[in-house]
UniProtKB/TrEMBL annotation:
Membrane topology: Multi-pass membrane protein
High-level lineage: Bacteria, Bacillati, Actinomycetota, Actinomycetes, Kitasatosporales
Protein name in the entry: RND superfamily putative drug exporter
Location of region: Disordered: 718-753
Source taxon at top rank: Bacteria
InterPro entries listed in its UniProt record: MMPL_dom (IPR004869), Mycobact_MmpL (IPR050545), SSD (IPR000731)
GO cellular component terms attached to this protein's record: plasma membrane
Length: 753
């Protein structure tokens, strides 16, 4: 592996014009595809195998057109104090509003509140339901403008008017935080490298990689039904790993220059060593993201695969485009320890650095001297932060989770006030009586049994289809959609359905948004253990190959569990409990978005293994070159601690930038990933890992002989490159960066691989 990547790096350095042209062409092609592709349209949310999904599919078959994916809006009216919506003046205002809405573009139908019995018992609140011909995300701006202007006209007439539903949905915004995150990354890179040119390379390549990935997602969005969140998450992860992977290669390149190697040779060795770590680190991230498919939720699978594709692009760019750009930069990228004249540095900085051990070395020596104290402090601290995760509640966001400043949230609150807390989360009971001898009797029995259950506010009469063999029964709970009592009602209806099936041969299924939320949460809980087993198992095997050890991969997996549990605890404390919510911009506490924890676990695992590979690879490299186990830990920190720290700060900045998103799940994931990277990089990898390795000593690097013979030797440490430099120098390889011809033998060997 190292030898192949070494040759690839040298080839990319020499053939930099060709390599750069390929990546620019790919960016242009992806951009053209995104620009010419049709709009993404509506993204269906399906959870195959759940009862709620089965009921929804049955409705599509038995009630054609009933479950059309057209957008909806609820225009909610409230009378002024002392008045009622049935007063003549208010009724006249509502009628004018309904007529204006019906004349709007793309409107399929409007239900008059007074004809649809949509006035509250006390007469103070009413609502008009609007159905559109196209999905909410596809509505034209003019349609939304008519809806808003019509509502404003009713406000001007003296009524309180708010609008709910998906008709006002818009693409989520990330705010200025994303730009701030990139700016922080730029500052960290400049400080790390001491050179504007060297700092700019990771940023440039990361932007190109994300540009290709997100453009490809946009181009395929309509065909594959990819939601807007997919590209946002791909951008988040692609930027973070793209900058980090390039950072490690450029850092190793500068270290090779400082060791006296010529520039082409340094590029080859940087790709052969740091590039090998990038490949395996990228593989762990890809495994974690693609492994999300085991949950069997199409939306989650698509998000994972799209993000994995962006990570794969980041790996390829780090291996090819970075050495090509280093060839263009030439002597403007300085050896490690030598800063550019622009920043006021000099060779004296390198001499001063060599005279005094860096902070990473001093910290490693401290940990090696006191491993037990550091280990206990780290484990206990993360364990304490993880405690809130025990009370985590899962759900899928609705208008109740929106800020009170939005009209959707105020409409939700008005409906709860006028019609009860369960009105915003009705249950749809589907009765399939096709196999029953008396369908009407089955419908009646289901209705009667539901009325006898606890926490039922209203049961609508059964509404059969044209054939009379299937009916829907709308049930309004007496509690809000996200409450435990509503969940118990759903299970109660399903339990009653088993007895009804035995008596009447009719199937009873419960669906609706609330029921779907419950089923999704259960599906994710059931999939968590298999997902962890798959991802951790595959990555464990991969790390055994990389480190040729059993204990090191085991330690890596256990450290990941600590950091991810602590991150989930922090998410629960902020978003569910409301601790320090103002600092993060959380206006309303709420259950955790159901798909967020498992998605975050996948991403965090991949990123945790990144730092494990980058940091511990240098330790193993020192150990196999003859150093003692404890000294190898110090040497690994001496070479990698500064770069890993910079990489972690960059990732935290990039992920933290997405906390400003208007999308609840993106905000949660941005916060969760930023916190998880902090815990994993600075507590697990920088404290717990060296403490454990110091305690294990030589045992950490042992591998059974039979397993050593079976495993392939991937040579991540670059042991096979030790003689490459001498042979390259003896053959007169150019190190000036001016060479344009490639070694034919080298190209043939590369193709053979």
């Amino acid at each position: 592996m190292a030898t192949f990547l070494y040759r690839l790096g040298r080839l990319a350095f020499r053939r930099r014009h060709f390599v750069a042209l390929i990546w620019v062409a790919l960016l242009a092609l992806a951009g053209f595809g995104a620009a010419s592709a049709p709009s993404a349209g509506n993204t269906s949310f399906t959870v195959p195998g759940t009862e709620a999904q089965k009921a929804f599919d049955l409705l599509e078959q038995r009630f054609p057109g009933m479950s059309a994916d057209g957008g909806t809006a609820r225009v909610v009216f409230k009378a002024p104090a002392g008045e009622k919506m049935t007063d003549a003046a208010n009724k006249n205002t509502v009628q004018k509003t309904v007529d204006a809405l019906a004349d709007g573009p793309e409107v399929a139908s409007v239900a008059d509140p007074y004809q649809a019995d949509a006035v509250s018992k006390d007469g103070t609140i009413a609502y008009a339901s609007v159905k559109y011909k196209v999905p909410g995300m596809e509505l034209e701006d003019g349609t939304r403008q008519v809806l808003e202007e019509t509502a404003q006209d009713a406000r001007d007439a003296g009524l309180t008017v708010e609008v709910g539903g998906d008709a006002l949905l818009a693409q989520p915004e990330t705010g200025t935080g994303e730009i701030i995150g990139i700016a922080v990354a730029a500052v960290v890179l400049v400080i790390t490298f001491g050179s504007l040119i060297a700092a700019g390379l990771p940023l440039l390549t990361a932007v190109i990689g994300v540009g290709i990935g997100v453009s490809a997602i946009t181009a395929l969005a309509s065909t594959l039904e990819l939601g807007s969140t997919t590209s946002t998450l791909a951008t988040m992860i692609g930027l973070a790993v793209g900058i980090d992977y390039a950072l490690f290669v450029v850092s190793r390149y500068r270290a090779e220059l400082a060791a006296g190697r010529e520039r082409e040779e340094a590029a080859g060795r940087a790709v052969g060593t740091a590039g090998s770590a990038v490949v395996f680190a990228g593989l762990t991230v890809v495994i974690a993201l693609v492994g999300l498919s085991v949950v069997n939720m199409p939306m989650l699978t698509k998000m994972g695969v799209a993000a994995a594709g962006t990570v794969a692009i980041a790996v390829l760019i780090a291996l090819t485009m970075i050495p090509a750009l280093l060839g263009y930069a030439g002597r403007r990228v300085k050896p490690a320890g030598e800063k550019s004249k622009f920043l006021g540095g000099a060779r004296a900085a390198r001499k001063a650095a060599s005279a005094k051990a860096n902070m990473g070395t001093r910290w490693a020596r401290f940990v090696v001297r006191r491993p037990i104290a550091v280990l206990l402090l780290g484990v206990v601290g993360l364990g304490a932060v993880a405690v809130p995760a025990v009370s985590m509640e899962l759900g899928i966001g609705d208008d109740s989770s929106l800020p009170t400043s939005t009209t959707q949230r105020r409409a939700y609150d008005l409906l709860s006030e006028g019609f009860g807390p369960g009105f915003n989360g009705p249950l749809v009971v589907v009765v399939d009586a096709r196999a029953s001898d008396d369908p009407d009797a089955a419908f009646t029995e289901v209705t009667d049994q539901i009325k006898g259950l606890k926490n039922v506010a209203t049961v609508m009469p059964a509404a059969p289809n044209k054939e009379g063999d299937t009916a829907t029964i709308t049930v309004i709970p007496d509690s809000e959609p996200s409450s435990v009592t509503t969940e118990e009602l759903v299970h109660g209806i399903r339990d009653a359905g088993a007895g009804i099936k035995a008596d009447t041969d009719a199937d009873v299924l419960v669906t609706g948004t609330t029921a779907m939320n419950i089923d999704v949460a259960q599906r994710l809980n059931d999939a968590l253990i298999p997902y962890l087993a798959l991802v951790v198992g595959l990555a464990f095997l991969l790390l055994i190959v990389v480190f040729r050890s059993i204990l090191v991969p085991l330690k890596a997996a256990l450290g990941f569990l600590l950091s991810v549990m602590a991150a989930l605890g922090a998410v629960v404390a902020v978003f569910q409990w409301g601790w320090m919510a103002d600092l993060v911009g959380v206006e309303e506490t709420r259950p955790i978005v159901a798909i967020m924890p498992i998605f975050m676990i996948g991403v965090v695992f991949g990123l945790a293994m990144d730092y494990e590979v980058f940091l511990v690879t240098r330790m193993r490299e020192a150990y196999i070159h003859g150093e003692k186990a404890s000294q190898a830990v110090v040497t690994g920190f001496n070479h990698s601690a500064r770069v890993v720290t910079a990489a972690a700060v960059i990732m935290i900045a990039v992920f933290g930038g997405f906390i400003g998103s208007s999308e609840a799940m993106v905000k949660m994931i941005g916060f969760g990933l930023a916190v998880a990277v902090f815990f994993d990089a600075f507590i697990v990898r920088m404290a717990i890992v060296p403490a454990v390795l110091a305690l294990l000593g030589r045992k950490a690097w042992r591998l059974p002989k039979w397993l050593d013979r079976v495993l392939p030797n991937v040579d991540v440490e670059g042991e096979g490159l030790r003689t490459q430099g001498d042979s390259a120098r003896s053959s007169g390889s150019s190190g000036s960066g001016d060479s344009t011809g490639a070694d034919p033998d080298e190209e043939r060997e590369l193709v053979k691989f």
